Each structure stands twice: as structure tokens, then as C-alpha cells.
User: What shape does this take?
Amino acid sequence: MSDFLNLALNVGTVAVALAVLLCSWRLLKGPDIADRILALDTLYMGMVALIILLDMRWDTELLFEAALLVAMLGFVSTVALARYITRGDVVE
Assistant: This one.
């Protein structure tokens, strides 16, 4: 890998890890449930970004599938939580 790509991966990994930490803090200390659901959704996207960055660093294709799986589970859980908060049930 080139030096520039290494630097970009390092900066990206640190930035996304910081974003994940801040989202975790908002998830724990959020003032209401809507903020916590939004923080959880953003946390999933941050985790997907971290997995993809690690995949690029390690030069493997296995982690792309893991990132896709985390993204799908994150979407489904966010929709389920939002429906539970607004309606009181997930499935009608």
C-alpha cells in the first residue's frame, strides 16, 4: 500500500471510531427515546464504516459480507424500534 493510502486509512479509522464513541455516549445519555434511536442507527452505520475500513487495511473480501450483514440488521432493528415506540407493537 502506498503511504498516502495508509495515512488516509489511519485518519478515516480514527475519525469513524471517534464518531462511534460519540454515538455510544448519545445512546447512553440521550435526553429522550428518539435521540437514542437515532444514535443507534448512526452507530450501526459507523460500525459498517469501520468494518469496511478494516477490510481495506487487511486486503480481504470477507469483511464486506460482514458489513452488509451489520447494515441489514441495523436497518431492521431501527425500523422495529421506531414501530414499537410509535405503535406499541412491531408486527400487526
Summary: The helical segments are 3-29, 33-58, 62-87.
